[in-house]
Amino acid sequence: MTEKKTALKAPKGVPDYVPPTSAGFVSVRDAVTSAARRAGYGHIELPIFEDTTLFARGVGESTDVVAKEMYTFSDRGGRSVTLRPEGTAGVMRAVIENGLDRGQLPVKLCYAGPFFRYERPQAGRYRQLQQVGIEAIGVDDPALDAEVIAVADEAFRSLGLTGFRLELTSLGDDSCRPEYREKLQNFLAGLDLDEATRERARINPLRVLDDKRPEVREQLADAPLMIDNLSGASAAHFAAVRSHLDALGVPYEINPRMVRGLDYYTKTTFEFVHDGLGAQSGIGGGGRYDGLMEQLGGQALSGIGFGIGVDRTMLALQAEGIDPSAAGRVDVYGVAIGPEAKAAMVPVLAALRERGVRADMAYGDRGMKGAFKAADRSGAGVTLVVGSDELEAGTVVVKTMATGEQHAVPLDAVVGHVAGLASAADRD
Ligand code: HAM
User: Fold this and answer.
1) 125 in ligand 1 pocket by Cβ < 6 Å?
2) Out of 176, 218, 270, 337, which could bridge 231 as a Cys pair, Cβ 3.0 to 4.6 Å?
3) How far is CA 231 from CA 88, 175, 194, 286, in A?
């Protein structure tokens, strides 16, 4: 006798998306990519793993993402490779390698897929996370910052989300950051902090501003903020971004203490926060990165982009009671009783699919009751029924599921009739 095998599970913190929720996954991904496409972003498909150096150099050695969360391993040739923890560094690598930065600027790109971070899994925090991102590279124009932000805002709104906020700040540029950093470090040196926090203040003082402990927060009340110490050029850039957003009708609030988990940000930096998600409230974030391309061996070109978390956006939809999969899996469902009826139904459904109507039918031998139950579950607006009476009469019964109304249509006319119904429903 063979031993019964234990059922396997997905690795910890790695979600599956199966029907019907996977329809919501696709809706979220499509909402972002469609908004990006409407603004002229072209698709870029990137490797899932890259040389480890790319992320160490691009994202920053002192970030948690690089220091603690990367899936890094040696391949069989002894090279150190890493499953991508984020998309921006890979996009820049590909832009440089393919010489896109030598063509028309800005280079506008959109990507979607899984990213990997060894974080402590909890609701909305996964080890394989899904993002849709865009990057606009090569032009340092506040109007472009506003466009990138507006694409994200439009994507969220097109899904019906309303319970989110856009937080905005500026992290300054090369001409004001070093001076500010010193000012902040001097301020932090005068506080009563533990050794680990002092060390953090030395390596990345900005991150101390994000400390959540009340005793630390209290001491930070009068900390100098980047936004009050911007260079003239950075301040003007930020003011222009804000007035573009005002003109676009995109609401925002300034959060001068925003700290992003990646080191490459300069100037405009933002986060979309949803209030229905608890601790993991960031549904998307991004910003401008002046030095990244140069850091990766390319020209000194600036860029701006965002990454939207598909998993968390799905949780946000759920929190607002929006079911993006409510549209149903198919438009038409076929119920055919007996092999001859099935033989009549199969080409009808094939012809409907050819016309762009989503169609499925009851397979196997489940009887009338089971087949109707499956029709209900499919979410189809129309059910087609062929039994022995219909076969004899050469007709198909067309049932509108919402009203229960039904009538017989000649078999040779049913495709045109039903395709007409489906496109009328699309217009509603
Ligand atoms: P990020 O803020 O690290 O930015 O990630 C973007 C979004 O991905 C977050 O707002 C969140 O919704 C989602 N996310 C991040 N980590 C997790 C996780 N462990 N589980 C579930 N969702 C998660 C970036 O990755 C930048 N590359 C964005 C960017 C593009 N900046 C400029 N261009």
Assistant:
1) yes
2) 176
3) 26, 6, 32, 21
Of 129, 169, 258, 310, the residue with max ligand 1 atoms within 8 A of its CB, to mutate for a pocket test, comes to: 129
Burial class (CB in 10 A: 0-12, 13-18, 19+), 183: middle
Could you give the strand order of the β-sheet that contains 80-83, starting from the edge strand earlier in sequence? 49-51, 80-83, 71-74
Among candidates 323, 396, 395, 393, which has minimal Cα distance to 27? 323
**Residue among 280, 308, 302 nearest 115 (CA):** 308
Is the CB–ligand 1 distance for residue 58 below 6 Å?
A: no
Residue 349 CB contacts under 8 Å (≥ 6 apart), including other chains: 332, 334, 359, 360, 361
What's the CA-to-centroid distance between 250 and ligand 1, angstroms? 21
Ligand 1 atom 5: the closest Cα is on which residue?
Answer: 307
- How many Å lie between the centroid of ligand 1 and the Cα of residue 109? 17
Distance CA 118, CA 14 (A): 10
CA atoms within 13 A on the CB side of 278: 7
pLDDT tens, residue order, the chain (428 aa)? 678 999 999 999 999 999 888 999 999 999 999 999 999 999 999 999 999 999 999 998 878 899 899 999 999 999 999 999 999 999 999 999 999 999 999 999 999 999 999 999 999 999 999 999 999 999 999 999 999 999 999 999 999 999 999 999 999 999 999 999 999 999 999 999 999 999 989 888 988 988 889 999 999 999 999 999 999 999 999 999 999 999 999 999 999 999 888 889 999 999 999 999 988 899 999 999 999 999 999 999 999 999 999 999 999 999 999 987 766 789 999 999 999 999 999 999 999 999 999 999 999 987 889 999 999 988 899 999 999 999 999 999 999 999 999 999 999 999 999 988 866 665 55
Task: Give nearest CA residue, ligand 1 atom 25.
Answer: 86
Nearest ligand 1 atom to the CA of 86 is 25
For a substitution probing ligand 1, which of 84, 108, 131, 264 has the most ligand atoms within 8 Å of its CB? Answer: 131
Contact 119 CB / ligand 1 (< 6 Å)? yes
Lookup: tokens for 104 = 């028309």
Q: What is the pTM of this model?
A: 0.88
